[in-house]
Amino acid sequence: MLMKSLRLAALPLLFAAALPSVHAAPDPYAARIVKVLNTTPLIDGHNDWPEALADKAGDKRWSMDLNRLDPEIYHTDIERLRAGGIGGQFWSVWVSAEKPELQQVKDTLEQIEFVHSLARRYPEQFQLVTTAAQVRAAHKTGRIASMIGVEGGGQIDGSMAVLRAYRDLGAGYLTLTHSKTIAWADAATDNPRHDGLTPFGEAVVRELNRLGMLVDLSHVSEGTMLDALRVSRAPVIFSHSNARALCNTPRNVSDAVLRQVAENGGVVMVNFAAQYVSEARRVWNADRSAELARNNAPPFGGLHIGDPEAAKQALVEWEKAHPEPVTTIGQVADHVEHIAKVAGVDHVGIGSDFDGVSALPQGLGGVDRYPALLAELMRRGWSDVDIAKLAGGNVLRVMAAAEQVAAGLKGEPEGNATVDGLDQGKE
After folding, report:
1. What is the pLDDT of residues 209-251, one digit of tens each?
2. Domain ranges (residues) in the chain
3. Of the listed 44, 75, 157, 178, which one is catalytic?
4. Which is catalytic among the residues 75, 194, 219, 338?
5. Quick one: which of 173, 259, 275, 181 has its CA closest to 221?
6. Which residue out of 75, 139, 194, 240 is catalytically annotated?
7. Would residue 190 show up in a list of annotated catalytic residues for this protein?
8. What does pTM read for this prediction?
9. How far is CA 246 from CA 17, 161, 252, in A?
């Protein structure tokens, strides 16, 4: 308890470097945040630190000191996690959807093992957990409750047995797709093939319910969202998505789906990625991509094809004439408030996407900055009760509900369907 008390007592010091809107009157917010996070763990639905370390540090990640890392390279390290008051983290074990699915399984197992290694190497900092009660217990001892999210349906390679193996290793959710449509589910950022879920995809949702794993609908198409909401007997999550009404990307959640999430009892965990927060930034990204193609699109297209230096200079000139739009912490708070307005304050959470994105809003550059977002919402009039729901109370409720559904399905047979067996002739 002493370690926890010291960690939380340090939180007010964060506000010496807070945003100007918070810095004007930091003490009331800091004290309130300490009080909230002393009783409710702050839970982030999505952090890509394992993959970032695999990509940038390679084999060194297994032994390097993770207490303090270069903030220009990583959004996450242990010292900043402590400074940010984090109480529970779903670590994403993402593997590229471009890889063959069998390779995805191997790489996923390595990513899961890395999360396990965090708890072995830093037992005073991290504790592996799979239930809501275990999250609360870890929080009481001052440890960060570490959970695992498998970020893509392709990572099960069409196998219910692989899904169960992930669960046995501690996986807490499965994101039904990542960036690409797969054999049994449509993705938000790829051409649809199934109008949502296939029969096998529906069977995956039912097996997730039986296992007590959360159904994660970030990255999936709206058709897949609606099918999963229809099939799931447990509340669903969006581990890192925003409000489509404010930023019109299919990675975000429409108001129509938000209302169904409320009926389902689920939670949408707000993403900090600039391109999913700001509509101006989303359009700028698209315009920049178009400019890249206009200048140099091998093998046959582009004004400067065959001359990459000229193409590079042309892009520099374009960026001077079209500066990157600024994304702010206030815009993230706008997404929180919109989801709370449409779905209800019981259905919104935090899913940062730290270490999985290249651009973040001003004031939210790393895992030490969660208190700044909570303070911004307090400035807007949010009560301590509602801040506690956002911070972790809502996702703990969803986890407990999924556990109850699984207990009720204990007598159900294991799912052993196959894509070929259920979906033959369905596409």
Report:
1. 999 999 999 999 999 999 999 999 999 999 999 999 999 999 9
2. 29-278+327-424
3. 178
4. 219
5. 181
6. 240
7. no
8. 0.93
9. 28, 40, 9
Distance CA 301, CA 256 (A): 40
- Is 107 known to be catalytic? no
Say whether 219 is catalytic.
Answer: yes
Of residues 183, 263, 250, the one with CA closest to residue 217: 250
DSSP secondary structure of 233-290: SS--EETT--BTTTS--TTSB-HHHHHHHHHHT-EEEEP--HHHH-HHHHHHHHHHHH
The reply to whether 317 belongs to the active site is no
Range from 11-20, 99-108, 164-173, 282-291 carrying the lowest mean pLDDT? 11-20
Q: What is the per-residue pLDDT for 300? A: 85
Q: What is the DSSP letter of 217?
A: -
Task: Tell me if residue 139 is catalytic.
Answer: no
Strand partners, 146: 89, 128
Decide: 172 and 156 in contact? Cβ < 8 Å: no
Integer Cα distance of 338 and 251 in angstroms: 16
Cα–Cα distance, 278 to 283 (Å, whole number)? 9
**Residue 48 annotated in active site:** yes
- What topology does CATH give the domain 29-278+327-424? TIM Barrel (3.20.20)
Before 299, cis peptide (omega within 30)? yes
Q: Crossing angle for the helix pair 370-379 and 26-39, nearest 10 degrees?
A: 110
